[in-house]
Amino acid sequence: MKILTVTGYKPMEINIFKEDDERITYVKTAIKKRLIPMIEEGLEWVILSGQMGVEMWTAEVILDLQDNYDVQLGIFPPFENQDSRWPEPLQEKYQSIVAAANFYKPLYQGDYRGAYQFKAKNLWLADKSDACLLLMDQEYPGSIRFFYEIAKQSLPDHFIYTITPADLDDVVEEIRMANPDYWM
User: Fold this and answer.
1) What predicted TM-score, i.e. pTM, was given to this entire model?
2) Architecture in CATH of 3-183
3) Do 77 and 106 meet the contact criterion of CB atoms below 8 Å apart?
4) Average pLDDT for consecutive 10-residue bins of the chain (184 residues)?
5) 180: three-class secondary structure by DSSP
6) In degrees rounded to 5, what are phi and psi of residue 134?
7) Which of 50, 147, 162, 173 sits CB 3.0–4.6 Å from 75 for a disulfide?
8) Burial class (CB in 10 A: 0-12, 13-18, 19+), 144
């Protein structure tokens, strides 16, 4: 596997409304825990659309991992200025991530024109990937269900990896147990 698409929930879909929410740390830790073995086995590129939430957190994880691993980050938003309606702090974060990415190219020139751009983005990402990693609860797939349905048609089942709520619970417990105060 050389190219992996990572996607998942937008922050509001998992009730995260502030950038300093401690749950973001757990999500990023779970993503990192999944990515490192893949990178060590030959993963070269992580591609995403750069949407708020899991994708931006993944981009931050990849940029951190680049200090120790040879992995590239590609961002392919469905259209230009996808961040134009986001809160200003998220726009700034997005712009800094785009500037640090190894590759950036919107799939459509110009601003948002229609929902077809999101479907085209999902098709393109699934087509260009060898596998995908989704932060998703099968019972409550939210907006990620659109990519998941396309991925199921494009990729063999064994190349669709998920981070589930149970995986996040495990990460929370590992972090708690690593804290010396936990044992007092």
Assistant:
1) 0.95
2) 3-Layer(aba) Sandwich (3.40)
3) yes
4) 97 94 97 98 98 98 98 98 94 97 97 96 96 95 95 90 96 89 72
5) helix
6) -120, 130
7) 50
8) buried
